[in-house]
């Protein structure tokens, strides 16, 4: 491995994250200008914009002939959201869990995870299956908008930039996403080749953790600023969008064929494991609170999983 590979990987990730943030700012500003209700913006525009890095990375990976990288990016991101981001966040500070988490977000997330298992079992995610996933995305957004109280949605950006400024930010956000993802994926593939590691492992570790950095930073900043609005529901929502939006749209663009059987035989069940253990942890030992003990447990499971990927 040379310095160029690391530079390409790191620089690509930085540009990718900047592009995602610019896209989010522009999308919210344009939506506000057109009078779209904040509730609708929070459940659609914000959620889709924050999934943009994962989406672009998965689509480009598939088009570059690396479907395992595309699929493992979604798998790894979902595992990292609950095993790494949530674990680190609640180790820093316990968070209270709202009832909507186990009544709405968690059941939908479990359904998305189980359906992910179903569509990937035959080793191919077809365009038809991608279309079904996107239909589930639309249905999920509609259901969550109807079921969610208006005061549950909070937007960080209440200001409206000029329309021209918003369009410029949108343009540069897209540009940054395009080139950042290009460099990041090329660096990841070069890293896999230089170490003789499969694209599956690189996707689950380097790529997925990289695209989960914004969620981790946001969660830690919220905790450090004593923002109690941070909730498990945000991470569960990210996992839902990763399956229905990222996997769905990517497989609509090009069918995905699993090359590494470990994705089907092992990794998908790890994702289901992390998704399923959240519910009992919400109620035990302390009801509707995720504290430091639970954080340590989650991080331990995640560390064991990552360790065995490289040394098993």
SSE topology:
Elements: H1 3-33, H2 38-50, H3 52-63, H4 67-92, E1 95-96, H5 99-120, E2 124-125, H6 127-147, H7 163-195, H8 199-224, H9 232-253, E3 256-257, H10 262-283, E4 289-290, H11 292-311
Antiparallel strand pairs: 1-4, 2-3
Helix pairs in contact: 1-2, 1-7, 3-4, 3-7, 3-9, 4-8, 4-9, 4-10, 4-11, 5-6, 5-9, 5-10, 6-9, 7-8
At a glance:
This protein is an all-alpha fold. It has helices spanning 3-33, 38-50, 52-63, 67-92, 99-120, 127-147, 163-195, 199-224, 232-253, 262-283, 292-311; strands at residues 95-96, 124-125, 256-257, 289-290.
Feature tags:
4 strands; A middle domain of Talin 1; two-stranded antiparallel ribbon; globular; 3% strand; 312 residues; 11 helices; mainly alpha; two-stranded antiparallel sheet
Note down, in words, how this protein is organized.
With about 300 residues, this protein is mainly alpha-helical. The chain has one domain (about 5-310): A middle domain of Talin 1. The chain is about 80% helix and about 5% strand. The chain has 11 helices and 4 strands, in the order H-H-H-H-E-H-E-H-H-H-H-E-H-E-H. It has helices at about 5-35, 40-50, 50-65, 65-90, 100-120, 125-145, 165-195, 200-225, 230-255, 260-285, 290-310, and strands spanning about 95, 125, 255, 290. The strands form 2 sheets. The chain has a two-stranded antiparallel sheet. Helix 5 (about 100-120) packs parallel to helix 9. The longest helix is centred in the middle third of the chain and has 33 residues, at about 165-195. The two termini are about 20 Å apart. The model has no long low-confidence stretch (mean pLDDT about 85).
